[in-house]
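If I may wish for something, please sit down with the protein I am sending here and say whether tokens and residues agree:
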Amino acid sequence: MAEEETLLIPRDVYLKSGIHIGTKFKTKHMDKFIYKSRVDGLSVLNVQQIDERIKIAANFLAQYEPEEILIVSRRENGWKPTRVFSEVVGTKAYPGRYPPGLLTNPNQENFAEAKILLVTDSWPDRNAVNDAIKAGIPVIALCDTNNQANMIDLVIPCNNKGKKSLGLLFWLLAREYLLLKGIINNSESFKKTAEDFSEE
């Protein structure tokens, strides 16, 4: 299948992680990414679009140096993937509670200068999103079917609640970023696995 060749990883790897399984709620912002609604009411996201958006996000991030990227995850399932991504790529990461003013108040002890923000969920991470907007820096957000995405510069549609889904997504983003930056030569030379990014 020609379509298979264009995906970053085989479709069944995406499906096994549950990256495409949304919620029973859907917002108008996320409607265009929804492939269908299941009998049980859960929305299913379009795998092709998830893959395309991961590629776009990696290209976007690759325009920045690692230390210019800030990743925030209030959601606990995102803590390990963001930490591992940060270690592998060299970005700043804030797993857990985001300290308000981190991006906007230079007098704050832990003030962080960043040129781009990546959040695992635009709702629990809204303080970081609001700070980024005030600071005038672009925001990439992982958005499930129930997310509002009107303040986001780039949406990556996905199941942003599942451990395996988040692990796979951050693993792919890390691999693609390192490839685009020329830090690794091919995807085989990326020694980490998606499991390394996932909570047990």
